[in-house]
Amino acid sequence: MNTFTVPRGTSDILPDATPLWEALEFLARKICKSYGYREIRTPIFEDVNLFKRSLGATTDIVNKQLLELVSSQREKPAESGSNGDRIFLNEYALRPEGTAAVVRSYLENSLDKIEPLSKLFYIGPMFRGERPQKGRLRQFHQIGVEAIGPNSSSPLLDAEVITLAMHLLKELGVKEPQLKINSLGSKEDKARISTWLRGELAKQKERLCPECQARFERNVFRVLDCKNESCKKVVASLVKDLPLSTPSQEYFAQVQAALNSVKVPFEVSPHLVRGLDYYTHTVFEITAAGELGSQDAVGAGGRYNGLVHELGGNPKVSYGAIGFALGIERILLAIGESSVPLSGVAVYIMAMKEEYQPLAFLVMQLLRKSGISADMSFIGGSMKSQMGKADKAGARFSLIIGEDEVKNNSIAVKNMETSTQESVALGGIVEHLIKVLSS
To answer: Are residues 72 and 146 in the same domain?
Structure first.
């Protein structure tokens, strides 16, 4: 018989691991809300052209990694007087990142007309056709933040978003995250720098790696952050002379001053450009030690003022937008598997005979209705085997229902940590457990 395995590049999140995921998500929501950000949830697939337009036709994500939904056409049954709707799934793609979908929702739901600045966050899965390796999956999960609004290009907002990213990582347990920042300048700066870079790199094009020779034509900025030693030598002197305009230099200086004022350490990295076409002005990347290896980035982001117009924003409005995304799987690699807590219930109920199981079931439901997490062995077993199950369940207390307990209308309550045991009247078991669990 054929067996099935998890799709390559994905992973199951098993019950022993979900408590840490829940804790990370709970803490992320709490911190984002404390900064005034509200949660948004968008579909996991969107119109494929949304990503092609926003990410850029020259990016690796669009050219190599976009997972499009492909299916033969399907026709809905026509209602009376209608021709039916044809559905073409290959018009859609699984989302490779969260920003484009958030901007689409921002515009579609007219949030720009409702509030002066929309501060949004999201938590969920993303999808890319990656070559699977540690820290790089085909389905991965992100915590993301986006701040979007008319006339919201403020260096202080840049500093707030970066500070929030660093705050999140530290609270989530990442030790000593390293922040690198850079400025790509305005849209006009990028166009001028692109032309200048291509001219300078053309003089040494043969020294570039094969991938960067292709990038030279598609997205010359990507040459700047290539890890190939030959390419790094070529661009070493160029990054010191990027022709950034005076207003862009002043903007970036204010971002740095704001970060210094709140004591967020950073390194200015002229090589940092990020891989998406929509970035302008401030870009940043955060790395961490741990088991990440070469994929040591746990988060990244930047400003993308032009994207709102690109996706249909009012051309008469000057939009500002900045955001970031943190990779949950990479955060887990950075903090280590030892941080995963055991899942557990407060109380585990054991019936010593099969005929006592209905009573155990009744007690379990009474506890649950009172807010006490509880479980039981539905197949019974010896005292030793059921105690083993209670221990594996992480229970703080076990309730034992045996012959004496049934005769006396009571329950034996055992403290799993101290191994002490006492008898409690059946009618007072809920009140007793609420008391001991709260102490």
So the answer is: yes
pLDDT digits (tens, 9 = 90+) for 332-356: 989 875 444 445 789 999 999 999 9
* Residue where a domain terminates, one of 297, 320, 338: 338
Q: Taking phi first (over 0 means left), then psi (-120 to 50 degrees means alpha), and beta for anything else, what does residue 284 get?
A: beta
In a domain, 1, yes or no: no
Pair 309, 373 in one domain: no
Within-domain flag for 9: no
**Confidence at 87, pLDDT banded by 50, 70, 90:** low
* C-alpha to C-alpha distance for 176 and 174, rounded to whole angstroms: 7
Q: Examine the domain organization and report whether 178 and 217 are in the same domain.
A: no
The answer to whether the predicted template modeling score (pTM) of the entire model surpasses 0.70 is yes
Residue 199 lies in a domain: yes
Q: Are residues 56 and 124 in the same domain?
A: yes
Domain with 370 in it: 347-438
